[in-house]
């Protein structure tokens, strides 16, 4: 009964719209949550700030774009789910919106003081989307020993006679944080235009961590906290993909920074400002190191396994590959075992026999061929099924000098290492990380090559 009365309480506020009309799987650009609800359907409208039509006709003929604003149910962020960045011609039509009002100037002065208070005596400061560079120049004048860089690919940056360095390019965290090691990155009225502001801040966070740079990030964006009380819709125009509330900016910074040092609103709550600091995040560095190591290992494995196989071929060995679909086809393609050099593919699955290896073309033959015409070497292409396949080879009476399996980037002999493929192994994992629970694995016994190939195998090690 309680549930029913709760449900009827909700219905007036939802205007009886069904959830299927309201709910969208749409990723929040601020917090990354994937469920949003319809917020404001503005219809098909032209650009407003990035277009300055020179005639009535030009104005009438402007392209129109969908204004489908939704609201993230997790952080309250509002965004246009139909926004396409390429529809806004930043390159050809620079943003000409300036606010020259007196109280706006007072706001800028407040921001300047707030930022100067954050800086060391000799700071390095970067401003992203610095426009004409006014704020950065006045900060540089207050800290003449520091280095100040203004990034903006679409503006005429005034350097104040060399007070700041102008960079007419996009700021790339992966490149410029390493180069400049900034104490402070300023981004004012930029993030609301981006397709993925969270992605940008996460890049700043990771690059700072990677480069061991103690970086702070100041973000200032328009704030929509007041639109709810005023029922104001005019904020929701196309160029602003994102509309931050004080909460959505907080959540975005909390997701990726070491510390959110400040969240404040200004200009009668029409802008929201956040200051966050970034430092060393050991876990993400470890994950990245693991990825780099894997990537190198994969390249090395490719060369090593191919050389081992070439040496066997050079020694005149007849090689059969067991398996031609799924992970076996993945093996054959990744190690580039082409039809000409490796024509012999067998499988025990009657459904696969007679089909061809995807991408490579070898015809898959039934395994019993190896009873009549044995191979010297059988390469089991699916490591995870090695034990079952080895048992099947034995029970079918198939003879071979060796069964090879790829293991940590090289081919090893199955019979010398059968315990590594024991399918009875398994662990109960108490947490998401399996690193700590897995017992250490012994080093494999290396593949003992045929006497006449010893020299060649040694050559590659
Ligand atoms: Zn969100």
Automatic annotation (TrEMBL):
Record carries keyword Disulfide bond: no
Boundaries of every C-methyltransferase domain copy:
289-396
What InterPro entries does this protein's entry cite? MeTrfase_14 (IPR013691), SAM-dependent_MTases_sf (IPR029063)
Q: Return the Pfam families for the record.
A: Methyltransf_14, Methyltransf_23
Database matches in SUPFAM superfamilies: S-adenosyl-L-methionine-dependent methyltransferases
UniProt-listed Enzyme Commission number(s): 2.1.1.33
Alphabetical UniProt keywords: Methyltransferase, Transferase
Among its keywords, does the record have Transmembrane helix?
no
What protein is this chain from? tRNA (Guanine-N(7)-)-methyltransferase
Output the lineage of the source organism. Answer: Bacteria, Pseudomonadati, Planctomycetota, Planctomycetia, Planctomycetales
């Amino acid at each position: 009964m309680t549930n029913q009365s709760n449900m009827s309480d909700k219905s007036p506020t939802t205007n009886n719209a069904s959830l299927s009309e309201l709910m969208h799987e749409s990723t929040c650009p601020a917090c990354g949550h994937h469920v949003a609800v319809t917020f404001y359907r503005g219809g098909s409208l032209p650009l407003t700030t990035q277009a300055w039509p020179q005639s009535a006709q030009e104005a009438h003929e402007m392209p129109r774009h969908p204004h489908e604003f939704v609201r993230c149910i997790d952080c309250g962020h509002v965004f246009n789910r139909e926004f396409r960045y390429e529809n806004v011609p930043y390159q050809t039509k620079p943003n000409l919106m300036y606010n020259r009002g007196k109280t706006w100037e007072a706001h800028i002065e407040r921001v300047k003081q707030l930022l100067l208070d954050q800086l060391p005596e000799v700071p390095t400061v970067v401003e992203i989307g610095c426009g004409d560079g006014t704020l950065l120049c006045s900060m540089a004048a207050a800290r003449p020993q520091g280095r100040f860089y203004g990034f903006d690919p679409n503006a005429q940056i005034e350097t104040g006679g060399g007070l700041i360095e102008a960079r007419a390019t996009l700021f790339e965290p992966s490149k410029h944080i390493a180069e400049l090691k900034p104490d402070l990155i300023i981004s004012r009225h930029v993030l609301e235009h981006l397709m993925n502001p969270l992605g940008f801040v996460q890049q700043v966070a990771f690059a700072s961590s990677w480069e061991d740079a103690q970086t702070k990030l100041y973000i200032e964006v328009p704030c929509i906290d007041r639109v709810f009380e005023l029922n104001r819709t005019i904020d929701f125009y196309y160029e602003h993909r994102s509309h931050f509330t004080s909460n959505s900016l907080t959540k975005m910074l909390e997701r990726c920074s070491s510390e959110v040092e400040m969240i404040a609103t200004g200009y009668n709550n029409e802008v929201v400002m956040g200051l966050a600091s970034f430092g060393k995040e050991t876990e993400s560095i470890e994950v990245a190191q693991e990825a780099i190591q894997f990537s190198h290992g994969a390249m090395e494995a490719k060369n090593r396994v191919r050389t081992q196989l070439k040496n066997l071929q050079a020694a005149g060995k007849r090689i059969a590959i067991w398996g031609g679909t799924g992970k076996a086809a993945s093996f054959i393609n990744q190690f580039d075992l082409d039809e000409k050099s490796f024509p012999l593919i067998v499988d025990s699955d009657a459904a696969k026999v007679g089909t061809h290896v995807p991408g490579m073309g070898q015809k898959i033959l039934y395994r019993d061929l190896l009873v009549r015409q044995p191979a010297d070497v059988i390469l089991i292409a699916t490591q995870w099924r090695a034990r079952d396949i080895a048992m099947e080879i034995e029970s079918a009476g198939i003879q071979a000098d060796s069964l090879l399996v790829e293991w940590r980037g090289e081919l090893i002999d199955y019979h010398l290492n059968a315990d590594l493929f024991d399918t009875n192994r398994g662990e109960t994992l108490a947490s998401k990380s399996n690193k700590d629970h897995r017992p250490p694995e012994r080093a494999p016994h290396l593949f003992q090559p045929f006497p006449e190939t010893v020299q060649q195998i040694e050559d590659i090690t």
